[in-house]
Write a structure and sequence with these properties.
Length: 230
């Protein structure tokens, strides 16, 4: 059975000791960590890795954390990714500047690791509620992530693990068109080779299961782009 995909955190920190401590704690909390040591690398990895959240140090070589945050929030394809800014700057003016640039949260160094993890989970719950074991609802479809159960129009829907993860991905981003490559990354993971045509097969199975008791097809095929829920 396929496990729920671990949330991906992009850690942007140029100090190696701090990066190692944060990586250790994040992985202990069940996160998949990718890291960057400067602003240029961070912007490239945001595009390549599509992280669920960015943990971003303000003071970085070359491109500052403030500028990295500004560029992430300026791009339509990345502006929805939560950014938590880490900074030794504790003045109110600095916090305001960070938040006005688009940061979703601002944490002052030195900080409690437990508090940082709590703040991170709060942001993650907003963008990936299924990772927090919450129920997702879209029209007449109800998905219970904790119990791994689905209903449509109050009728139970039997799904295999792959179809369940597909539906979870769609229900976390209703209306958003997801390419086959994005679905492969989110459902199967980057470490497993699966042909993009496999996505079509499993989307077909998901459609069949969701329409078993009647109702319209909730999954929209966008020619040349991918699939979306609604």
């Amino acid at each position: 059975m396929l496990a729920q995909r671990q949330p991906v955190v992009l850690l942007v920190e140029d100090e190696s000791a701090q990066r190692e401590v944060l990586t250790y704690n994040l992985e202990a909390e069940g996160f998949n960590v990718v890291s960057a040591i400067n602003g240029d690398e961070a912007l490239l990895m945001v595009q390549e890795e599509t992280p669920d959240l960015v943990l971003l140090d303000w003071m970085l070589p070359n491109v500052s954390g403030i500028e990295v945050c500004r560029q992430i929030k300026a791009r339509p394809e990345t502006r929805g990714i939560p950014v938590i800014m880490l900074s030794a700057r504790s003045e109110e003016l600095d916090r305001v500047r960070g938040l006005e640039t688009g940061a979703d949260d601002y944490v002052v160094k030195p900080y409690s690791v437990a508090e940082l993890m709590a703040r991170l989970r709060t942001q993650l719950r907003r963008v990936r509620p299924a990772a927090a074991g919450e129920r997702l609802v879209w029209q007449d479809i109800l998905l219970d992530a904790a119990e791994h159960r689905v209903w449509r129009d109050s009728q139970p829907v039997n799904l295999g693990p792959t179809e369940f993860r597909l539906l979870t991905t769609f229900m976390e981003k209703p209306g958003r068109v997801l390419s086959r490559e994005q679905l492969l990354d989110r459902v199967w993971g980057r470490d497993i080779y699966v042909d993009t045509r496999t996505v079509d097969v499993h989307v077909g199975r998901l459609r069949k299961a969701l329409m078993k008791h009647g109702g319209t097809d909730p999954i929209r095929t966008v020619r040349g782009a991918g699939y979306s829920l609604g």
